[in-house]
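This entry is set out below.
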Amino acid sequence: MKKHIYLILLSIGIVCAETLFEVKDSLNNTVFDVSDDGVAIMNLGDTLMVISTKEIKAVIDDTKALSRKFSVSTTSAKKGQYTDLFDVSLGSATMRESGGVRYTDFSPENIFLGLNAGVSSVSSGGNIFIGNNSGASNESGGSNVFLGDQAGFNNISGYNNVFIGLEAGYSNLDKNANTYVGYRAGTSATGFGNTYVGHASGYFSTTGDQNSYYGIYSGTYSNGGYNNCYFGYNAASNNKDGHSNCVFGHHAGLGIEPTSTNYSDNCLYGDNTGQQLKTGSRNVMIGKDTGFKTSFGNNNVLMGYKSGYSMTTGSNNLFLGAFSGYSNATGIKNIFIGDSSGYSETGSNRFHLNNGISGTPLLYGTFDSPRMVVVDGTSGDNPNSYSFYVNGTAGGDYSWNSLSDKRLKKNIKTVDEALNKVMKLRGVTYEWSDEKALEKGRRMGFLAQESKDVIPETVDYNSEKDIYTMQYAPITALLVEAVKELKKENDELKKEIEEIKKIISNK
């Protein structure tokens, strides 16, 4: 209706102006009119164009023909060929370069700006493509935003994607819900539900799905991985097919080489954490340089600055504390707790509880054979491999109980020649040679080497070169039987004395 009113007003304006020159068709309809106000071009009463002192305007009446348009074109005087440089038609505005290649197209459905941007679109809608060749292959994909030269270049039918940056999302064909932001971010990606943000983030990533990469070169070589979250410069850059990883930090989980790196189910937090990881899985590494040299390892928990720093292929370890397990390269099933705990330990199946790099651990243990726990020492302080060893004094508020149930024993015999054995023992007082490591002051006891031939049951050693140890508690049983023997002898002596008294009294 508005267009009709405009045409009527325009016709009135033309009529009011004084005609200086006009051209009519065979039906006496004016087709060209020159007046004192300007020039008008008409067709069967339909005004097509007006050039006047007030305006220059092309008029398209959509009630006559939907295909009508306004164009600025090149032309060839010889062949009558031309190329539209600027077209305005109902619902569309398009600009082309002299060769006919489109570089803008604005419509209610799409906005395309750039050489060949969205040039292949047929049935798409809701797209914004800005940049030369951005979305150039798009046919039916909709609700996409591509910004940057060749951004989303190969997208044909993908929906709800955001690609920002040179060649961002270049290879995406038909996948949806991806966000790639940065120079060549996700250039090779063909998966869905990914978010890559940063210069070359996910650059070589191909078929991976539902990944989130944030940072320059983060996840650069990811190829088929899924459910990963990488955050930081070069974070997990070389992890190829890994999945379900959380990697946060500068060079964290970088990997050694993209052709072989494939780790999954890891949580790496901190700069350079797990930097050389290749095929390990189910690891938790928290702290700067933690697990720095680990290339293969499973089920490790490393927490603290440079914890497990030298580990290369260890598995099933628990290191808690700065520098804990620092030197352990290939150990398995270790537990180190405390600052610098197990710093120099290189073995497996070891337990260290300590606070500081110097000195012996407060608690030391072995999980393999022989299993032991040493208080304030190491296995070197427990040469006989006792299950529980205290390297120093021990005490408590309650008694120390030992198993003594008759039902648990066999080959039961009474201690024989108890008094004779007691008489052969030599009780001594002494001082320890190394008072720095052992108790100070004068002590009382036995010498194991002297006692081993008298009561060998109480002396423990493997060879004469070993340190001898001795159990003092069993000597109580020996003393009990010795007292009994003395009692028996005493009773017999008493009996003899009584008999002697009787003999004397009878005289």
Observations:
- Helices lie at 2-16, 418-424, 448-451, 475-506.
- The longest helix spans residues 475-506.
